[in-house]
Every structure is written in structure tokens, then in C-alpha cells.
């Protein structure tokens, strides 16, 4: 019994020495790795909110007016921060449509986005551009990105244009008051800027017929009606001039 016990202790002793040695080596390696990691780590920069138009959260939404009013103007200010204090550079990804803006870096860690193209809402009413941010340590072509939605607001820059219509209408003198014809003018602007109203304009005393014909705006169309009796012997030709007008106030 006692012999067996001694033998067993002898076997254990070298094993536990080896085990302790390995453990020590492992601990040393682990410490070196941790120190090395801290020396080369880079924390990426991030966008921060400036005027509430976009922080680290969702996309930035800005509104610009079509036409020349906002051309060259500042549309949004960007700001960023970097946990390591690296200097930051903002930019814009050169995707289709991104050339409508120019990003100018300003100290400290900020940028101003300018509108550099005149926009036409009737051609395109929104753009999404991708803003970029780097601390110079993310590697070539790598950026922190944030999308910016640019909504193009309407101005009243179109006049209504008449769709083809009949220029001559023949009525029998015994026609009863009622519908004569319908005209329509189209204005591509939005809302009231594109809402066409119709009026009859007096051409001259002889030709005009304010009491004989009337026009009403119904669902965007001009409905011309005969509102009086006709008398061929008294008057056989009427000339109507129709105005398509659009309110200029939004
Ligand atoms: Ca950094
Ligand atoms: Ca218009
Ligand atoms: Ca317009």
C-alpha cells in the first residue's frame, strides 16, 4: 500500500512542473498581445448632430428650392468626432447625382455642404447623396457614411400650356343653353402653382360675348357653356378668348 502511494507521488511531480511552466508562458504571451493591441487600435470617427438635421442616427434631410434661389448656398453643416482625436475629413461619394453638392471641410472637424447645381423640381424632386467621413486611418476607400436626402421644393416656374383644342365650334341658332366645349391647360408645377383657373377675356366690344357664353373651372378643365339665346340675324360670329391662369401664392 505505502509503496504504491510513493510511486504515485513521483509520477505526479514532473507533470505538475510542466503544467506550471506552460501556464507561465501562456500568461506572458497574453499580456504582450494586449499591450500591442492597445498601441495600434483606431477608433473610427462618427457624425454628430449639429442643427438637429442629422446626428449619428438616421439620414440627414434637407430642403432646397428649385431654380437659382438656393444655388451656391449652404444647405447643411456637418460635424464629427473621433475618440482618438484624429483630424477628420468629410466628403461625398461620387455617385450619380452627387455632383449637385460640394463639401467644404472647415475647422474644427466640421464641414459645410453647398448646393452647386441649379435644380428643377419638374425634372427630379429628390436626391440621395452619401456623405463620407474618415479620420485618415480607416484605409483607402473606407469611410463612415451617412446618407442625405435632398428634397427639391417647388416654385412657380411654369406657365400653363393649352392642350390641343378645337378652334372652331359651330352652333345652330336654336341651340339651348348648355355645354359648348371643354378646354384644358396643363401646368407641371405643384399644388396651387399648377392649379389652372379659366376666365373669358374680352376681345373687343363687337366680338366678345360676356352674356352669351361663360366658362367654369371644373376639375382642372375649362367648361364653356352657352348661357343665352343665339340669333343668327343679329350676330353670327363670336370670338372667345380663354385665359388659363395660375395663382402665384403658395
Ligand atoms: Ca480614429
Ligand atoms: Ca405654374
Ligand atoms: Ca416648379
What's the quick description here?
With 250 residues, the chain is of the alpha+beta class. The protein is 16% helix and 35% strand. A hairpin with a 3-residue loop joins strand 5 and strand 6.
How would you describe what is shown here?
By secondary structure, this protein is an alpha+beta fold. It folds into two domains: 46-153, Immunoglobulin-like, CATH 2.60.40; 161-246, Immunoglobulin-like. Helix content is 16%, strand content 35%. The protein has one helix at residues 2-40, and strands at residues 46-48, 60-65, 74-81, 89-92, 101-106, 110-115, 126-134, 144-153, 161-162, 178-186, 196-201, 213-218, 221-226, 241-246. The strands form four sheets. A four-stranded antiparallel β-sheet has the order 1-3-6-5, with no helix packed on it. Strands 2-8-7-4 form a four-stranded mixed β-sheet, with no helix packed on it. The protein is rod-shaped, with a radius of gyration of 39 Å. Residues 1-38 have low confidence and may be disordered. The protein binds calcium ion (3 copies). Residues 156, 158, 187, 189, 193-194, 246 line the site of one calcium ion (CA).
Compile the SSE list and pairings:
Layout: H1 2-40, E1 46-48, E2 60-65, E3 74-81, E4 89-92, E5 101-106, E6 110-115, E7 126-134, E8 144-153, E9 161-162, E10 178-186, E11 196-201, E12 213-218, E13 221-226, E14 241-246
Bound molecules: calcium ion (CA) (3 copies).
Amino acid at each position: 500500500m505505502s509503496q504504491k502511494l510513493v510511486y504515485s507521488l513521483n509520477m505526479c511531480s514532473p507533470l505538475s512542473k510542466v503544467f506550471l511552466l506552460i501556464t507561465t508562458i501562456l500568461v506572458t504571451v497574453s499580456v504582450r498581445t494586449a499591450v500591442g493591441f492597445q498601441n495600434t487600435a483606431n477608433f473610427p470617427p462618427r457624425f454628430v448632430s449639429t442643427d438637429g438635421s442629422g446626428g449619428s442616427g438616421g439620414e440627414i434631410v434637407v430642403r432646397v428650392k428649385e431654380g437659382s434661389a438656393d444655388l451656391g448656398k449652404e444647405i447643411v453643416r456637418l460635424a464629427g468626432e473621433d475618440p482618438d482625436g484624429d483630424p477628420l475629413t468629410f466628403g461625398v461619394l461620387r455617385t450619380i447625382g452627387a455632383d449637385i453638392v460640394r463639401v467644404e471641410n472647415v475647422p474644427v472637424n466640421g464641414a459645410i455642404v453647398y448646393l452647386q447645381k441649379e435644380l428643377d423640381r419638374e425634372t427630379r424632386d429628390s436626391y440621395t447623396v452619401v456623405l463620407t467621413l474618415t479620420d485618415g486611418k480607416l484605409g483607402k476607400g473606407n469611410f463612415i457614411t451617412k446618407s442625405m436626402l435632398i428634397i427639391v421644393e417647388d416654385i412657380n416656374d411654369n406657365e400653363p400650356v393649352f392642350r390641343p383644342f378645337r378652334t372652331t365650334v359651330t352652333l345652330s341658332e336654336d341651340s339651348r343653353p348648355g355645354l359648348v366645349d371643354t378646354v384644358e391647360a396643363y401646368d407641371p408645377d405643384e399644388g396651387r402653382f399648377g392649379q389652372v383657373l379659366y376666365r373669358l377675356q374680352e376681345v373687343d366690344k363687337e366680338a366678345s360675348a360676356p352674356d352669351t357664353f361663360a366658362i367654369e373651372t371644373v376639375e382642372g378643365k375649362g367648361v364653356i357653356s352657352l348661357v343665352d339665346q343665339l340669333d343668327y340675324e343679329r350676330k353670327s360670329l363670336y370670338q372667345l378668348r380663354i385665359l388659363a391662369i395660375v395663382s402665384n401664392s403658395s
